[in-house]
Write a structure and sequence with these properties.
Blueprint: E1 8-16, E2 19-28, E3 33-38, H1 47-57, E4 61-71, E5 77-79, H2 81-97, H3 106-110, E6 116-118, H4 127-176, H5 180-196, H6 204-217, H7 221-240, H8 245-265, H9 269-289
């Protein structure tokens, strides 16, 4: 299986018995699978089967399927006999009441609304047409699936590159944070001794204990270890590929959480800069993951 996007387009068209048809399928990202079908009146009975066909190929996405149908031959023009007879009767009555009035003219009567109309075919949707429409839906759906997989291949390459960048930044953060607890302890001790040099209010050993505790809390090795584990899980999802979008989205949220903690604990300019770069790359990755099926 390969990674699939939720964005794509598919089309199929054909004709049967003088009637041309065309399916267009479009999809964008969504939380689940939502299929909207728009078809001419009289084809509603096809919808349950078409929905089952779509659900067998798609797992997520907002999908719109539109079927357009048009007659290839020109419709025949027919006269509404009842309306014409009624108009003739009314026209004759009016002519009798007006001395010297000319008899009703045919072109004038035919120009009145409703007298002429396009004759409807006796069988609007033939068995052949219905069969082609069902087959055409499958063809358009297959084209949509192909387009989503092609877009998924692009997403796979992009996400792989972004994971490589996150890995490199995480490794840089490990180096920059190696001596962070010790540097944080030294900085805190220097500040405290400056404040308490003249009037100490706590014993020196108690101050040292509190500073050591604060320095330990500034240690980011746990966050960086969890980030490494999340990176490994993300690469496993890319390898699995099939319908991993929801899990990938949740995993990227964990990336964001660990990086936010890293930035909040940072005690050095280089580590903070690396943390901000991590946040930027992870945010770009999250935008791409939104499109993964």
């Amino acid at each position: 299986m390969s990674l699939a996007s939720m964005t794509g387009f598919g089309r199929a068209e054909g004709s049967a018995g003088g009637i041309a048809w065309a399916w267009e399928m479009r999809s964008v990202n969504g939380r689940g699978l939502e299929l909207r079908l728009k078809m001419p009146s009289g084809l509603d009975a096809l919808e349950p089967g078409l929905r089952d066909t779509a659900a067998a190929s798609l797992k997520r996405g907002n999908v719109n399927g539109t079927l357009t149908i048009r007659r290839e031959d020109r419709p025949k023009i027919a006269v509404d006999p009842e309306l014409l007879n009624e108009l003739l009767r009314l026209a004759a009555e009016v002519a009798d009441k007006i001395p010297g009035a000319p008899p009703p003219r045919a072109e004038a009567l035919l120009a009145l609304p409703g007298v002429l109309r396009a004759s409807a075919p006796e069988e609007a949707w033939s068995t052949e047409l219905l069969a082609q429409v069902k087959t055409g839906f499958g063809t358009a759906l297959a084209a949509l699936v192909t387009a989503r997989r092609e877009e998924g291949a692009r997403l796979h390459r992009l996400l792989s590159a972004q994971l490589d960048e996150v890995t490199a930044l995480r490794d840089a953060a490990v180096t920059e944070a190696a001596d962070q607890p010790e540097r944080q302890r030294a900085r805190l001790m220097e500040s405290l001794w400056g404040l308490l040099r003249d009037q100490p209010s706590l014993p020196a050993d108690r101050i040292a204990q509190e500073v050591a505790l604060l320095a330990t809390r500034s240690d980011v090795r746990e966050e960086l270890d969890r980030l490494a584990a999340h990176l490994e899980a993300a690469r496993a999802l890319l390898a699995e590929a099939a319908a991993v979008g929801r899990r990938f989205d949740f995993l990227v949220q964990e990336f964001v959480r660990e990086t936010n903690t890293l930035c909040s604990k940072s005690a050095s300019v280089p580590l903070t800069a690396t943390g901000l770069r991590l946040k930027a790359v992870i945010e770009q990755m999250r935008e791409q993951v939104q499109n993964v099926e």
